[in-house]
């Protein structure tokens, strides 16, 4: 009986242990499932926040800047070794032909002009043919290997090349010579061009909004006339209206003193300004129309600014060439006949190439802004023309 009792107690203990283990495993499994669920929720939230940031204005600008810098390092790593090998190859060719000329001097009597001239002419013709083949096939730029500070594929040169790709300018004076570089260029453009268009569109919209707000509060004649009409209608042609307008001007300049009397004046001014801003005669920012002339003046000013800057940097450029380069660049024509630092061999300041890249990026945004303002004016003109000829029915005021 005692043995049976002990066996029964032992079997019960094992069963309880198995039940405890199963409950512990269930708890652990439930806890791990909760942990995995929390991780999924946090990952989903992080992906959503990251996507919203990348699609925002700051995010798109940051992506374009990082993408351009990445392209600078990438193209430098691919094309720079090939450029160095090409320069070394040309240097070896030149040294070999120097030795051939020296042997010709040793083999022929230099006083026998005809024989020496024929041999030297044959050597130089062969040298000319080989150099032409190197320039045609390998893209040699005529710079010796000793001038490594004038590399085309330095980081700043590669950065300018990457910017010319994503902005679709494509100067053409520097192009990839390796198969890897050409494949990377195509892939880089497929991703970079839409990214650049998104960034330029966002920045152009922001700048257009700022210009509308600035123009509406400073230069818009209709807004200024509506303000005057508001005060005439509100206060009439009395000294009181003049005093109130002067007080409001002081209120805007924060010149009202803080005493008991001016507190009520400040409150009154604030109330009048609030009523003025909410009156039907005051335009909202999105309703302000900027004339096409203003947009053209902004573009012309930016081209003139770039022309002055590049004509100072480049010794061989005048204002006309600088303006020509800026216009062909900002319009994405990009002939490549004039490129900063390409004609001038003394330009070793890499900061100027970076400044050129920034000028292009900002200029593309400015052009997008001006195109948006001009497009808005053209849309309004087409709408008025359609109403005039009867194609569009005018909206009657409520």
TrEMBL record:
Cellular component terms per the entry's GO annotation: plasma membrane
InterPro entries xrefs: 2pore_dom_K_chnl (IPR003280), K_chnl_dom (IPR013099)
Keywords of the record: Ion channel, Ion transport, Membrane, Transmembrane, Transmembrane helix, Transport
Cited SUPFAM superfamilies: Voltage-gated potassium channels
Residue ranges crossing the lipid bilayer per the database entry: 58-78, 153-174, 186-215, 292-313, 319-336, 356-374
Keyword Transport: yes
Domain Potassium channel: 150-207, 298-376
Gene3D superfamilies the record matches: 1.10.287.70
Family: Belongs to the two pore domain potassium channel (TC 1.A.1.8) family.
Protein name: Potassium channel domain-containing protein
Organism: Potamilus streckersoni
Lineage: Eukaryota, Metazoa, Spiralia, Lophotrochozoa, Mollusca
């Amino acid at each position: 009986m005692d043995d049976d009792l002990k066996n029964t107690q032992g079997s019960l203990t094992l069963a309880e242990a198995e039940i405890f283990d199963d409950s512990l495993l269930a708890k652990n499994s439930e806890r791990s499932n909760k942990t995995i669920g929390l991780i999924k929720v946090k990952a989903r939230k992080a992906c959503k926040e990251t996507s919203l940031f990348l699609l925002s204005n700051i995010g798109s600008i940051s992506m374009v800047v990082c993408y351009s810098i990445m392209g600078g390092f990438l193209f430098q790593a691919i094309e720079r070794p090939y450029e160095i090998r090409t320069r070394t190859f040309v240097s070896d060719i030149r040294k070999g032909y120097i030795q051939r000329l020296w042997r010709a001097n040793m083999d022929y009597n230099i006083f026998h002009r005809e024989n020496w001239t024929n041999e030297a002419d044959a050597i130089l013709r062969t040298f000319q043919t080989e150099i032409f083949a190197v320039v045609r096939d390998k893209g040699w730029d005529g710079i010796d290997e000793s001038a490594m500070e004038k590399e085309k594929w330095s980081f700043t040169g590669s950065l300018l090349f990457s910017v010319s790709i994503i902005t679709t300018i494509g100067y053409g004076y520097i192009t990839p010579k390796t198969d890897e570089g050409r494949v990377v260029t195509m892939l880089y453009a497929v991703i970079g061009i839409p990214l650049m268009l998104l960034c330029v569109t966002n920045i152009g919209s922001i700048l257009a909004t700022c210009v509308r707000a600035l123009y509406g509060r400073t230069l818009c004649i209709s807004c200024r006339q509506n303000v005057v009409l508001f005060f005439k209608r509100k206060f009439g042609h009395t000294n009181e209206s003049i005093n109130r307008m002067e007080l409001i001007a002081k209120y805007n300049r924060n010149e009202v003193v803080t005493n008991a009397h001016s507190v009520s004046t400040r409150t009154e001014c604030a109330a009048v300004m609030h009523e003025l801003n909410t009156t039907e005669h005051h335009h909202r920012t999105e309703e302000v129309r900027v004339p096409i002339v203003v947009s053209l003046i902004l573009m012309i000013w930016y081209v003139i600014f770039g022309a002055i800057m590049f004509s100072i940097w480049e010794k061989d450029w005048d204002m006309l060439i600088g303006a020509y380069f800026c216009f062909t660049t900002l319009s994405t024509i990009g002939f490549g006949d004039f490129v900063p630092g390409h004609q001038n061999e003394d330009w070793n300041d890499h900061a100027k190439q970076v400044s050129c890249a920034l000028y292009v990026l900002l200029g593309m945004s400015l052009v997008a802004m001006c195109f948006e303002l001009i497009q808005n004016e053209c849309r309004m003109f087409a709408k008025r023309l359609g109403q005039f000829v009867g194609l569009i029915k005018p909206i009657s005021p409520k």
